[in-house]
Amino acid sequence: MVDTPLIVGLGGTGTPNSSSEKLLRQALERCAARGAETLMFDGAALDIPMYAPSESARDEKTLALIAGLRRANGIIIASPGYHGTVSGLIKNALDYVQDMAEDEAVYFEGRAVGLIAAAAGWQATGTTLATLRSITHALRGWPTPMAVAVNSMVPIFGQDGTITDTGICNQLDILAQQVVTFARMRALHELSLQQADGEREADRAGAE
Fold first, then answer.
1. What's the CA gap between 103 and 163, in Å, rounded?
2. Residue 90, SS3?
3. pTM of full prediction above 0.70
4. Which of these, 91, 87, 89, 93, lies nearest to 64 by C-alpha position?
5. pLDDT, tens digit, 9 for 90 and up, residues 73-127
6. In whole angstroms, what is the distance from residue 31 CA to residue 177 CA?
7. CA angle 32-33-37, nearest 5°?
8. Longest C-alpha distance within the chain, in Å?
9. Contact between residue 128 and residue 90 where contact means Cβ atoms under 8 Å apart
10. Helix and strand tally (H, E) in the chain?
11. 133-137 long-range CB contacts below 8 Å, 24 or more apart?
């Protein structure tokens, strides 16, 4: 896991191949290029029932989402901006993280979270990104210093779906690098703690 952290991506809309979905795929490709394993939940995968705290039954898509997030060493969230904030699709998926409240690693505890916002206008990108940061903090995640805000009113994709804007490409590179690097640093820290615990146990056994 130290060498191959799992980075899980959440993003997209009800429309396949949306801007936010393409940005997320590009970010995950950059994580994979740095040696990470990736797992993506796009708009279709996030088309799940509305979260209800009193409902304990979960459908297959929801169970797959929570299982993926539990395995994640790092997370990337990409949301379109709907009326100045995150989409209902993304917010609903994140509400289900409450199922991880009793986990040893509660919610997104100890995991870097890269954030991407794509909206029609710079004001909407800013407010959507701020909301994503607020949600990540509430879920005990660590937002990466680099976040990516994309004004979807400005064409940035070529006909083949690749990003033609050099600035956004650079930002996605930095975001991916930060998520993967933090995941590896966290894994090394946990490994060193386990080794230290093992050495202490060995010392105690030898003293006895």
1. 38
2. helix
3. yes
4. 93
5. 999 999 999 999 999 999 999 999 999 999 999 999 999 999 999 999 999 999 9
6. 7
7. 20
8. 71
9. no
10. 5, 7
11. 135/86, 135/91, 135/94, 136/77, 136/108
Please, what is the end-to-end C-alpha distance for the chain in angstroms? 34
3-state secondary structure of 195: helix
**CA gap 161, 17 in Å, rounded:** 9
Go through the chain and tell me how many residues it has: 208
Which is it for the CA torsion 17, 143, 46, 63, positive or negative?
positive
pLDDT score of 130 more than 70 = yes
Q: Which CATH class is domain 6-207?
A: alpha beta
Q: Which two tokens stand for residue 63?
A: 């169970």
**Angle of the 19-33 helix axis to the 166-207 helix axis, nearest 10:** 50
Enter the tokens of residue 57.
């039954």
| Cα of 4 vs its chain's centroid, Å | 16
Structure tokens at 65: 């989402």
Q: What angle do CA 125, 128, 134 make, to 5 degrees?
A: 140
| C-alpha dist (Å) from residue 120 to 39, 42, 78, 94, 150 | 27, 20, 14, 23, 8
Residue 158, helix vs strand vs coil: coil
